[in-house]
Amino acid sequence: MSNSKPVLSSSIGRKLIMSLTGIFLCTFLIVHLIGNLQLFKDDAGYAFNNYAYLMTHFAPIKVVSYLLYASIIIHAIYALVLTLKNRAARPIAYAQNGGKANSKWNSRNMGILGTVILVFLATHMNNFWWKYHNDQTPYIEYSKDLATGVVTSKEISASEFHDYQVTVVNNVEVTKARDLYKQVDFAFQNIGLVIFYVIAMIALAFHLIHGFQSAFQSLGFAHKKYVPLIKGLSVWLFGVIIPIGFALMPLYFYFVK
Amino acid sequence: MAQHMNLTLKVWRQKNDKTKGQFVTIQANNIADDMSFLEMLDIVNEDLTRKGEDPVYFDHDCREGICGMCSLVINGRPHGPKYGITTCQLHMRSFHDGQTIVIEPWRAAAFPVLKDLAVDRTAFDRIQQAGGYVNVNTGGVPDANTIAIPKRIADEAFESATCIGCGACVAACKNASAMLFVSAKISQFALLPQGQTERYERAQAMVDQMDAEGFGNCTNTGACEAECPKGIKLTNIARMNREYLTAKFFREEDVHVQS
C-alpha cells in the first residue's frame, strides 16, 4: 500500500464530480421552477419581467449563474469522458443483453437522456437567455398606481426604452423593462417547440429519477431512514412535480394564453 | 422420470486472448432436465471429444455454488436466468425443449478471454493483493472472541464477506465496473476492528488497483446487486465511496507516512 493516485483522476473522484454538479443543478431547478411560476400570473408579465431583471443583475445571483453554467459543462464533459472509459472497459459487446432483468431502463440510458436535456438547454438558452441578453426581446412599460395597486402596461419601442428603470411620479410607479414574458408567449405559440419542451421534460424526469438518488449513493450516503426519503424526493419532486411544473408553462401559453 | 430436451447452443469459441472469437452453433441432444447447466456442457463436450473436436472450455470447480469459479453469460444474464445462484446451481429445467441458448464469456477488457468461455480473472487477485488483507501478529493464537464486536456489525461484515469473487457484477454491469466486488472486499475489513489498521490505505490502494486494471465506472444501475449470486448489496458501494472519499479528504496524513 503505497502512495495513492489523486482523487479526481480516480473512478470514485469522477463520480464525485458528477454527483456534486448534478445535485447543484437539481437545486437550481427548484429555484428556477418557483421563480418561473410567475409566468402563470395574469399581469402582462409585470412580476416575471421584474424578476428576470433581478436574476440577471443581482451580483450574488450572477455568481451562482456562472457556477451553474460551469456545472452544466463539467457535468456533460465528465459524462462524456466516463462514457468513453466505460465503453473501453467492454470492447466486445454482448450478443444478447438481459439488462432489463436486472436494472431500470433510465439508469442504463442516462447518456441518451442527458443528451436530450443538453440539446434542450441549447434551444432554451437560445430562445430566452440569448435574446434577453442581446436586446432581441420587445420592451414594455408598466404603470402601477401605488394607491390602488392596479397595473397597466403598454408596449414601447427600443428608442423609448434606454434601460431598465423604475420611477415614481404622482404616486404612479412607472417601470420600463425588457419584455421576456412576451418573448415566452411568442415562443410557445410554436407547437413544435411546445412538443419539444414537453419531451425534454419527460427526459428530465427519467434522468432525475435515477440521477438525484444516484448522486447520494456516489457520495457514500447510505442510511436506513434517509435513503428512502432521498428516493422519494427523486421520484416525486424531481421526477413528477418539477418536470410537470415546467411542462405546464409551454402548454399554458399555447392552450390558455 | 426426467424430461429430456434438445437444445441449440450458440457458444462463443475463441482460441486465445490473441485471436478473435465467434459464435458456433452446437446441438445438445437428449438433455435431462435434472442436469445442471455445467453437466449439460459436460455431455456436449463428451460428444465433441468423441467426434475428435476441441471441447468447449469453461471454468468450474466446486459445483456447489461456493467457490466462485464458474461464470458464463447465458441468454444475456450472468449465471443464467435465475437470481441468487451460480451457473453450477442452474438446472436445465429452467429451459425448454427446442430452446436456443446463447452462451458468452464475461465480457470486460479487464477479463481477457483465455479460451472459449474461460476468462482471466486475476485482475481480482491483484486488487485483493493491493489491500484486501489485515495485519496479524505472530506468536501465540489469541483466544476466540477476545475482541467484542456487536452482532449487527459482525453480520454486516459477514454479508460482505460472502462475496465469492466470481465477477458476475462486472459481467452484469453495462460499464464493466468492478465496484461491487471491490466494495465488498473493502467493507468486510472496514467494518471489523481487525481491519482498522490499514482501513484508509486499503480503500485507496484497492480503488487505485481497480482503476489500473481497466474496469469501468459505476453508474448505480443496480445490475450487479440484482445478478450477484451471493446477494452483495449496493450499500457496500456506498460504503466504499465513503471510505475512499474520507481517506482522500480527511485522512490524507495516513498516506504520508511512507513515500
Automatic annotation (TrEMBL), chain A:
Q: Which domain of life is it from?
A: Bacteria
**Gene Ontology, cellular component aspect:** membrane
InterPro entries, from UniProt? Cytochrome_b-558, SQR/QFR_C/D
Protein name, per record: Succinate dehydrogenase / fumarate reductase cytochrome b subunit
Q: What is the phylogenetic placement of the source species in the record?
A: Bacteria, Pseudomonadati, Bacteroidota, Sphingobacteriia, Sphingobacteriales
UniProtKB/TrEMBL annotation, chain B:
One example GO MF annotation:
electron transfer activity
Top-level division of the source organism's lineage: Bacteria
User: Residue limits of the 4Fe-4S ferredoxin-type domain?
Assistant: 154-184
Which residues are in coiled coils?
none
Please give the cofactor(s) recorded in the UniProt entry for this protein.
[3Fe-4S] cluster; [2Fe-2S] cluster
Gene Ontology biological process terms from the UniProt entry: aerobic respiration; respiratory electron transport chain
* Alphabetical list of Pfam families matching this protein: Fer2_3 (PF13085), Fer4_8 (PF13183)
Q: Which family does it belong to?
A: Belongs to the succinate dehydrogenase/fumarate reductase iron-sulfur protein family.
Q: Which PANTHER family match?
A: SUCCINATE DEHYDROGENASE, SUCCINATE DEHYDROGENASE IRON-SULFUR PROTEIN
This chain belongs to which protein, by name?
Answer: Succinate dehydrogenase / fumarate reductase iron-sulfur subunit
Q: What species is given as this protein's source?
A: Sphingobacterium psychroaquaticum
The uppermost taxa in this organism's lineage are: Bacteria, Pseudomonadati, Bacteroidota, Sphingobacteriia, Sphingobacteriales
